[in-house]
Amino acid sequence: GTLAFRARSKRSGDARKQVVPLTGPARLASERAFNLVARRLAEWTMEDGVGNKNSLAVDGEGVFFRFGGRNSAPVLNGLDITVEKGIIYGLLGPSGCGKTTLLRCIVGRHKPSSGTIKIFGKIPGKADCTVPGPGVGFMPQELALYPEITMQETLTYFGRLYQMERSAIKERISFLASFLDIPDKNKLIKHLSGGQQRRVSFAVALIHKPPLLMLDEPTVGVDPLLRRSIWKHLQKLAMTDSVTIIITTHYVEEARQANVVGLMRDGRLLAETNPEVLIDQHNVLTLEDVFLKLCVKDSEAIEAASTNELDGFDEEPVWVKRRAYHRKYNAVTSINGYEQYETVLLNNSSKPTIDISRKNDCKSRLKNVWDRMGALNHKNFVRLKRNIPLVFFQVFVPVFQVIVFCLCVGGEPFDLPLAVVNLETDPSGKSNTFLQTISPTTFIQNNFTNLSLAIESVERGKNWGVLYIPATFTDSMINRYLEGIAVDNETIQNSTIKMYLDMTNQQIISTIHSKIMGNFLTFARQTLGGFGWNPDIASPPILLGKPVYGDIHPNFTEFMAPGMILGITYIMAVGLSAMAVIIEKKEGLLDRSWLAGVRSWEVMFSMLFSLFITMLLQVALVLILTFKAFNIPCRGPIAWVVIAVLLTGLEGMSYGLFISSIVNDENIAMMIAMGSFYPNLLLSGIIWPVEAMPYYLRQFSYCLPLTLIANSMRSILSRGWTITDNGIYDGFLVCLAWIFPVILIASLFFKYKK
């Protein structure tokens, strides 16, 4: 029916009933009131047998959607949409008017800010609704295909997600390949032409014969003859199989083939009826002219609204009973302040091609989960098989990093230039004996005649330090030992070798100091023994006994190796898991998988499984190389070492999945991964002991993913401890505490952000 107003002219005072085109706030209010009351009247007529509420495929009422907060402009602005079963509904509108957003709201990918959308009488995303899932076939505007797999593999993947039988999948693939004129269904997607890729994307939406098809620009870049075939097939699906089809297109005249068109502008529907009826009503030749007229009127109404132009009438609404929507298009109604043709329900007695009822028994749900997980894992491994360079990178880059670490870190510096000023001229003096005990591998001795020249060479960076030996060194040293406590200061000075060092490099200076002191102790013991005295007189009064754990000369490589193995495994897992998910999100097929009913946790666990299998090979090579090629000792159970490394890899994967759940760009993800890893590395005690940190940072570092597990692995390797020893299990517990909660948080982000 129509929304009419009983108005009284202020000039004549006579009452008359007329249809008034409204502007401004009154126009917007009338739109809302009309839509609401029309729906209620339609429901009343259904109770009288005129229609059936269950005949609606899509029923949207008062839909608002915003990207951002409440203050942001709405993309969908109180939109109402009604789509009957078994019709083709063409959605037309300029770019940015909200068509794609509306489709994503219908399929449950976006949740309306307010208002409701129902699919076959149920809310998308609820347990009793098969949307997302087998109840809908969706073709997005972008390609949304994996380029590294074939059409056959793509359609098989989606067929398995929709729980189709293998024989049915093969039958549908053969039909779709023939119908869409794709000559080689075993050709990689990336090797197909642009038009063929669009056709494969279309085939994905058709594979499981859904009762609702959502097609976003399906005929772009398609040959005109094939476009005609596609439309004929869609019309056949609607007529014979009662499939409901919602299609967007920028070919305006193409939409004339639809049963109903919705003309959309600025998040609102300007009209929603049969295209031929629209053309006849507005007395134009093309649907494009209709759209132009409605856009002009809409702009005029919006402009008038800003000036509040509405006077001369006292408004009193009168409701006229409206017949049910979408029958045969023969009576006039009003929508959005303009005239529109009322429609009569189409005959939709045919049943959907698939049963869209949701099976809730436990066995069925488990089977569906198993099928989806199997499809996801198969897809992941096929992608790995087609991307050998990526697999090579995943497996051998950590191996290369361990090789570089073991070769370059922890060894003693050698070939260090050292200036020597020996003022003792007697060749038989003990100074020459001392200089001969200095390791020629560690030091390169450069002789100077005076101290000033030697120090100048250090200042110029040519030597790391100066050894200065007095002229009477031998005699003074002998007197120093003979006189004991009675020795004078002059004798002490003349028997002392002085070192002037460049102290800018702590590791090199530590090496020079320890080596020279060790060499001098050896020299002193030999000298005392040569005189028949007890060599132990030269030893300090502190004796270093047999080590409880480790060697008497500790190796820095052995100290850092556990942390470096864990750190390399962790950061590789973070980067690869984050990149894998983000690339799938950007390709668009992850979005399609969610529309097929895949849940976020299923995607995450399938990704973890495929990456974990690759990580097993990676960890095996790294540990074999570490323990066999570079002889890093493992004094404890190797099984706990393997478990520690695998848990650390899972920590990294879970963190990578968390990163991919909050960002959609690879560069940002890598910045977050690297930016968070460096503080983690510094605070975890891998490079420098935790005990050297301030107390408050030390407590914080124990909560990080690498600190305690690195300590546990170091104790297993160097001390031979097992899981039952003090503090070992703490590292494993922290790993588990980082894996499961982070995966849960990432899953929630995926669920509510998708």
UniProtKB/TrEMBL annotation:
<dbReference type="GO" id="GO:0140359">
    <property type="term" value="F:ABC-type transporter activity"/>
</dbReference>
<dbReference type="GO" id="GO:0016887">
    <property type="term" value="F:ATP hydrolysis activity"/>
</dbReference>
<feature type="domain" description="ABC transmembrane type-2">
    <location>
        <begin position="497"/>
        <end position="753"/>
    </location>
</feature>
<dbReference type="InterPro" id="IPR013525">
    <property type="entry name" value="ABC2_TM"/>
</dbReference>
<keyword id="KW-0067">ATP-binding</keyword>
<dbReference type="Pfam" id="PF12698">
    <property type="entry name" value="ABC2_membrane_3"/>
</dbReference>
<dbReference type="GO" id="GO:0005524">
    <property type="term" value="F:ATP binding"/>
</dbReference>
<feature type="transmembrane region" description="Helical">
    <location>
        <begin position="638"/>
        <end position="662"/>
    </location>
</feature>
<feature type="transmembrane region" description="Helical">
    <location>
        <begin position="668"/>
        <end position="688"/>
    </location>
</feature>
<protein>
    <recommendedName>
        <fullName>ABC transporter</fullName>
    </recommendedName>
</protein>
<keyword id="KW-1133">Transmembrane helix</keyword>
<dbReference type="InterPro" id="IPR003593">
    <property type="entry name" value="AAA+_ATPase"/>
</dbReference>
<keyword id="KW-0812">Transmembrane</keyword>
<dbReference type="InterPro" id="IPR047817">
    <property type="entry name" value="ABC2_TM_bact-type"/>
</dbReference>
<dbReference type="InterPro" id="IPR017871">
    <property type="entry name" value="ABC_transporter-like_CS"/>
</dbReference>
<dbReference type="InterPro" id="IPR003439">
    <property type="entry name" value="ABC_transporter-like_ATP-bd"/>
</dbReference>
<dbReference type="Pfam" id="PF00005">
    <property type="entry name" value="ABC_tran"/>
</dbReference>
<feature type="domain" description="ABC transporter">
    <location>
        <begin position="58"/>
        <end position="291"/>
    </location>
</feature>
<keyword id="KW-0547">Nucleotide-binding</keyword>
<dbReference type="GO" id="GO:0016020">
    <property type="term" value="C:membrane"/>
</dbReference>
<feature type="transmembrane region" description="Helical">
    <location>
        <begin position="563"/>
        <end position="583"/>
    </location>
</feature>
<feature type="transmembrane region" description="Helical">
    <location>
        <begin position="729"/>
        <end position="750"/>
    </location>
</feature>
<dbReference type="InterPro" id="IPR027417">
    <property type="entry name" value="P-loop_NTPase"/>
</dbReference>
<feature type="transmembrane region" description="Helical">
    <location>
        <begin position="603"/>
        <end position="626"/>
    </location>
</feature>
<keyword id="KW-0472">Membrane</keyword>
